[in-house]
Amino acid sequence: MDEYLETFCGVKIYRDGFRILPFGDVDNDWLELNAQRTSSPEFRIATQNTIGIVYITRDKNPGLQDVLSRENMYETPEFSSLKKFVNLGFDKYTALQLRERKKKERKIKEELADDRFLGDHRPSIERRNNGNSRFRMADH
Questions:
Q1: Rounded Cα gap, residues 35 and 29, in angstroms
Q2: Strand order in the sheet with 10-15
Q3: Which of 12, 25, 26, 32 is most buried, with most CB under 10 Å away?
Q4: DSSP assignment, residue 72?
Q5: In Å, how far from its chain's centre is CA 20?
Q6: Closest Cα partner for 33 from 52, 57, 18, 8?
Q7: Strand ranges (E), the chain
Q8: How far apart are alpha carbons 36 and 49 in whole angstroms?
Q9: 40-86 pLDDT per residue, tens
Q10: Is the peptide bond preceding residue 22 cis, with omega within 30 degrees of 0?
């Protein structure tokens, strides 16, 4: 998985089927994901653990203009809007991810509270050295 992320990480931009460089290169953080992650790492994603593609067309996005070398885009209001839009999608994703993580943490806390309440009267699962499991009732 690490090799896969190293090879494909970043959010790339394709216009009319052709990739616009340097967007999505390892050292290109056009969405400023890494800077946002520094301020709150548990709530943010980073370019090195993100894979994404933005598809645009010249006809429907005339305000998104390539520089003459076709290896970047001009900082136009439309480009700023594109960055905000993509970041909003990541914000929604991370909010959902955080909500699910908190649900799991609550469930674990509830299970731990149940364990403390039930004490030795709760069935448990033992793991033997060979990985097999067996149920047992705790001795009283």
A1: 9
A2: 18-20, 10-15, 51-56
A3: 12
A4: S
A5: 23
A6: 52
A7: 10-15, 18-20, 51-56, 123-127, 133-137
A8: 14
A9: 777 778 888 889 999 999 999 999 988 877 778 999 999 999 999 99
A10: yes
